[in-house]
Structures
1.
Amino acid sequence: MSTPETFYDQVGGEATFRAIVARFYEEVAKDELLRPLYPEEDLSGAEQRLRLFLMQYWGGPQTYSEQRGHPRLRMRHAPFKIGLAERDAWLRCMRIALDEVELTRQQRDRLWQYFEMAAHSMVNSWF
Ligand code: HEM
């Protein structure tokens, strides 16, 4: 009996998430609003955490939770001031990254819908 293919497999597995997240952080590195929020000088740790989280979320290996425990993303973002401008900047970087990987229209839409919802749910500053 074969296991059903996950969305992670359908979009091309780790290589696809690696490409999206690497491109995303190239943009973050240049963004005047976002870059100062990241505590580490080297963004490679943050890049790895986001990549492993997304791989796990979409049905791939559960390495994120093995290394970091339960995601609790809202709680993990609480130390950073995330307003509407930060949310929009984050989404702008992600839009560029998503547009550059090879995906079907439906796959891209599904990922984008999720990112819009997730980014909005991370907003913790309304003033
Ligand atoms: C971590 C900013 C949205 C997933 C972080 C960090 C910052 C940050 C500053 C700490 C970097 C580090 O780990 O060294 C933001 C901002 C967002 C946003 C400004 C705008 C809305 C999101 C969204 C997701 C996400 C939508 C998921 C889809 C993560 C993950 C981590 C992280 C998985 C690492 C958590 C950990 O294991 O410690 N984010 N983030 N973030 N972010 Fe975001």
2.
Amino acid sequence: ENVQGEIGMEHVTFGYLENQPVLKDISLHAKKGQKIAFVGSTGAGKTTITNLLNRFYEIWEGKITIDGVDIRENGLESLRENIALVLQDTHLFTGTVMENIRYGRLDAADEEVIAAAKTANADAFIRRLQNGYDTVLEGDGANLSQGQRQLLNIARAALSKAPVLVMDEATSSVDTITERQIQEGMDALMKDRTTFVIAHRLSTIRNSDMIMVLEHGRIIERGTHTELLQRQGRYYELYTG
Ligand code: DCP
Ligand code: MG
């Protein structure tokens, strides 16, 4: 199986409750390796789009495809293999740092795990922990800072070989050094993968191939950063506001 990671959404409509659509007629196409960013007010439907791509819920209408194949046709297992996730809430378990990063790639040698941590910019802080990579994390990484947990999530995704990456950027109020580390880690991660990124800091998505502006479940504007600024619409408002 050689998945390229092209993503298509055609006229997707969905809601969590009957007769209450949250996404309405969403259509988009991401070529292999492209970075698509989603912006818009809270509750606009950004996370819902990624929930549907991951098949956490079933759509009401329309179709979502990877490499042209409806995601309902292949099993969830293949979907999980093809999509790496960096979500707002971290999913760390009680175990060592090494085990937490290796999660999902049990075949990975220690060296590979460390290389992924380096890619994610997590290696330096891990080495400063009491027992380095053998440090045991409390449930959900309670003994780490928010930024450190995020870096571990990024390391885990860096270890994954999935051609598609979904990132729901944390709104976190981490310090600027950690923020820069997170940004560098995410940039390294996106390289060569088709990426859906939900951005809370618009500065981080200026270089996207396409920015989608969502409002009340619809894409109201789409284009590159430059195009959307020229348009002086909603994105311009969000960016300059
Ligand atoms: N919603 C719901 N049930 C859920 C999740 C969301 O009813 N399990 C509703 C809340 C919003 C709408 O769906 O009205 C869209 O929610 P999203 O989480 O997709 O919104 P965003 O991700 O755009 O918002 P935020 O920026 O706050 O993360
Ligand atoms: Mg969200």
3.
Amino acid sequence: MEHIVILGGGYAGLLCAQELRKHVSSSDAEITLVNKHAYHQLITQLHETAVGARPDRSLRLSLSKLLEGKNVEIVKGTVSAILPDERLVELQDGRTITYDKLVVALGSETEYFGIAGMKEHAFTLKSVNQARLIRAHIESCFARYLYERDPALLRFVVGGAGFSGIELVGELADALPQFALEAGISMDQVELYNIEAAPGILPGFDKDLVDAAQTSLTSRGVRFMTGAAITQVEPGRVTVKTGEVIETHTVIWTGGVRGNQLVVDAGFETEPRGRAKVNEYLQSVSHPDVYIIGDACFVIGEEGRPLPPTAQLAWQMGIASGKNITNELRGAALEPFKPNILGALASLGRKDAVGKVFKSYKMYGKMAYMAKEASQMRYLAKIGAMFHSS
Ligand code: NAD
């Protein structure tokens, strides 16, 4: 019997496991899913949890419930090495797992661009636990201010104004007044900065959508610094290329992502930012017996540009790889992966968003926000999680 091992229980890995079990019975293949936690994380909504707008338990969905009755063995463990030539995976606790077919769906890592002190002193927002840490930290800044009267405690900085940065800034703009109110502090003393290296926010996005986002966020007190690359982060301050220094105890870094180091270390062929090069079937170009999907891989889209590392594509790649492994087991032809980019919507806090759906239809405000919520509901329905939590 074949042993299929899936590394990672995120959008790509979970959907791959679910898709496989639609077609492959447990007498034909054993399926093991390895994940760091016993839960699947809805990381597209971390910005809400980071400010306390959504409880963290609603972002953690039990993998055993999502895969209930599907005969998938869930191994809770952290992958420390992949040895493709030996068809072996090593876990941090010393366990090893052998496989016949491997799917690597380990996601991306934060790109620090070698910025001095960024890794050591900035928060990142890539997991539910990090979101909890940020929320607790913000609360403590307000509480400490009452005793220490250090204005830097009430100055919050988000580095990067891509989708992740803008969504977080939007949530902070809506939530900080509540934190201030609870601490009995005037909002006049609170400052929220978004620092972006490019000349404008949401680089590459349509100008009218960018303008709408900027107007909405500025009206809620966000101070944008654009054309201002962060060059250094130290305890209590952040420095930008222009030489300007902002005194703060809170820098949250959303400046970019890169591939997974485990993929690089395993010897899979990668592009310079560590994402695995894959063929049209999502198999590693250097090791075609291994599928590498989601943020961990690098795929050129129809327009000749790399596909963005988004949840919707990870989800689609999970299904596509599940189908192709099924085809392999049946001796059928493999199907090329056909991405279907349904749109891009950036929330701007509670009840506001901007975005584009169905290629060119632009949406603003509450409508855009509702469209984003609807896409989240669609995902939950797809994975059978409407009424689940961890
Ligand atoms: P990103 O790479 O898209 O944006 C990072 C931003 O940080 C860029 O604008 C970059 O210019 C800026 N930056 C880099 N170095 C800097 C520096 N030294 N100082 C200041 N700014 C600096 O990363 P992201 O926002 O995390 O998004 C990653 C991917 O995930 C993208 O493809 C994005 O579209 C996707 N995403 C989508 C959604 C959504 O659909 N709602 C939400 C989040 C992320």
